[in-house]
Design a protein that fits this description.
By secondary structure, the protein is of the alpha+beta class. 38% of the residues lie in helices and 14% in strands. The protein is elongated. The termini are far apart.
Length: 232
């Protein structure tokens, strides 16, 4: 009569339990409850599988590939024992998207400009950006100086500033700039700093100097936010 040792029984039972604990392999085109489980685990790990609908489509495959890459697994889009094991271990959260670095505030920028009210306008003026209280500006120099004083750098000259902000992706509409304190308002050859209430602080011209002016109806063509400043 043959017998099976208790140790052998335990080994058989353990292998059977392990096999039962691992869901079947699934891949693009698979459907059903196992795929639903996969999608829920991917979503919990921070990888968007698309709708939780039990349909292993391209979106779910893309999430699987991203998860496999994050875990150092073979990137084949097939969810077999190793990928299931990593998912059952809790998965990983993808790294957060980098946030824009802020170095100063729009309000500090505005206050620096306001403090220069009454200064002279001199076309082409070149100001020491580290001077805490210059006496003369042109329009773009006031923006560059106040931004530097608030902790950020922008180019001099409206012809340089407009493409710079476009390249940085911070161009906004004129209407939005008029409503945003510390935004910039541009028209050909001139820039002003919006106070967000229909007024500006700007170096307007030799007849005006640096002052506060009505912003409405003055032919602005674009607006911009300064990268590195915190607005609102």
């Amino acid at each position: 009569m043959s017998t099976v040792s208790s140790a052998g029984s335990r080994r058989v039972a353990t292998a059977t339990t392990a096999a039962a604990a691992t869901p079947p392999t699934v891949r693009q085109g698979s459907k059903g409850a196992t795929v639903t489980t996969l999608q829920k685990k991917l979503a919990a790990a921070g990888f968007n599988p698309g709708p939780i609908d039990g349909d292993f489509g391209p979106k779910t495959r893309a999430a699987v590939l991203s998860f496999q890459k994050a875990k150092g697994l073979k990137q084949d889009g097939i969810v077999g024992p190793k990928t299931w094991g990593a998912l059952n271990a809790g998965g990983v959260k993808p790294p957060p998207k980098p946030q824009p670095v802020t170095k100063g505030t729009a309000e500090a920028f505005v206050q620096k400009a306001l403090a220069q009210k009454g200064d002279r306008y001199v076309f082409g003026a070149e100001t020491n950006l580290n001077d805490p209280n210059p006496s003369k500006f042109d329009c773009s120099e006031l923006v560059q100086w106040a931004a530097h004083q608030a902790g950020v750098s922008v180019p001099d000259g409206t012809m340089n500033q407009v493409p710079y902000f476009k390249q940085k992706g911070t161009t906004i509409s004129v209407d939005e700039a008029l409503r945003t304190r510390g935004a910039l308002l541009y028209r050909p050859g001139h820039v002003a700093i919006s106070l967000g209430d229909g007024r500006t602080i700007e170096a307007r011209g030799s007849a005006y100097g640096v002052g506060i002016f009505n912003a409405n109806g003055r032919g602005w063509t674009s607006g911009a936010l300064i990268p590195g400043l915190k607005y609102g």
